[in-house]
């Protein structure tokens, strides 16, 4: 959907996808995420990736049709997961994305 949007940025889309994939991989090891539908988890991973990478044109999470409270709950849990696994996350990311995330944390 992002690439079909007006003025889509391919680099932003690809970097968000790579980071979201890493966050999703971490979530597979945590039973707290079993209660979420895969599509909800995917959209929230992309939303969190946009936040972490400070993208100018983040994906509109409302496109998912999930209630805002459910999205926020999932985002909050993902944010906590990333915070608790800040040493592990870079190990599952491409180096260019990992370097960008480390740069933002400082």
TrEMBL record:
CDD domains on file: CYCLIN_CCNO_rpt2 (cd20722)
Protein name stated in the entry: Cyclin C-terminal domain-containing protein
SUPFAM superfamilies per the UniProt record, alphabetical: Cyclin-like (SSF47954)
Domain annotation Cyclin C-terminal: ranges: 15-84
Species of the source: Phrynosoma platyrhinos
Taxonomy of the source species: Eukaryota, Metazoa, Chordata, Craniata, Vertebrata
InterPro entries, A to Z: Cyclin-like_sf (IPR036915), Cyclin_C-dom (IPR004367)
UniProt feature coiled coil, ranges: none
Pfam family, any one: Cyclin_C
């Amino acid at each position: 959907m992002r690439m079909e949007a007006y003025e889509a940025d391919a680099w932003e889309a690809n970097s968000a996808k790579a980071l979201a994939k890493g966050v999703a991989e971490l979530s597979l090891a945590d039973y707290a995420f079993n209660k979420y539908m895969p599509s909800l988890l995917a959209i929230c991973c992309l939303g969190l990736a946009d936040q972490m990478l400070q993208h100018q044109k983040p994906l509109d999470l409302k496109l998912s049709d999930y209630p805002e409270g459910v999205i926020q709950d999932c985002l909050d849990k993902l944010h906590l997961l990333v915070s608790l696994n800040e040493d592990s996350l870079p190990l599952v990311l491409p180096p260019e994305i990992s370097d960008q995330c480390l740069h933002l944390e400082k």
